Amino acid sequence: MANVFDKILSDSATRGIVPSRTVDARNWFRSEAQKVGARSASPSRLIGQLETQSVEGISMGSMYLFGYDPKLKSSLPYYDRFPLIFPFAGAPGGFYGLNVHYLPLVMRARLMDALYSLTSNKKYDSSTVLKLSYDVLSRASKFRYFKPCVKHYLNKHVRTDFILIDPKQWDIALFLPLQRFAKADAAKVYSDSQKIING
What are the C-alpha distances in Å from 56 to residues 21, 33, 74, 81, 159? Predict the structure, then answer.
């Protein structure tokens, strides 16, 4: 049985749609990912269908999914056990990353559309990364949705291999219901994120 990504990519090929190249293409991929996600039993089932490359380390500007158990989870109001991130800087004991799960889907799409302007090239293959930095993100209003997504991850609290998401699959992963928030529901997380964005 084809995995989630393969099926959507195969359907796109028959329609002549190239991932990430245009806003229309991105919208199509996002719509298809939402349909697949709605039909799937659980995030764990979707994660089990990912036939992507598992890696031990990370590269800045690539997209990764992984299991995480925060060091200070008892004092956090909530956290995501399966972050979907773009790491962008090293940090004490780990790294900083943008976890797009902290945004509702519409804001996720707006942030991702802005982030595509930071790609290293337009090939959307293994050579494509986002040229991210906190300074770049904080300077332009088009990136304003990034603030609630910035998280510090500790290497010792990563609980799985990192699943590297190919750039042609970014828009599919973006819209699959892979987030697993602990201690709060998504509505609460998204409400708080909106407050952070609005200042």
Answer: 29, 27, 27, 18, 11
Q: Name, in order, each residue with C-beta under 8 angstroms of 127's C-beta and a sequence gap of 6 or more.
A: 120, 121
Binning the chain into helix, strand and coil, the percentages to the nearest 5 are: 45, 20, 35
> Which amino acid does the sequence have at 50?
L
Of the listed ranges 45-49, 92-96, 124-128, the least confidently predicted one is 45-49
Helix axes 105-115, 186-198, angle to 10 degrees: 50
SS3 label, residue 104: coil
Locate the domains of the chain by residue range: 4-198
How big is the chain, counted in residues? 199
Enter the tokens of residue 122.
């337009």
Location of structure tokens 């909530």: 78
pTM: 0.81
Q: Is the pLDDT of residue 53 over 90?
A: no
For residues 84 and 175, the answer to whether their CB atoms sit within 8 Å is no
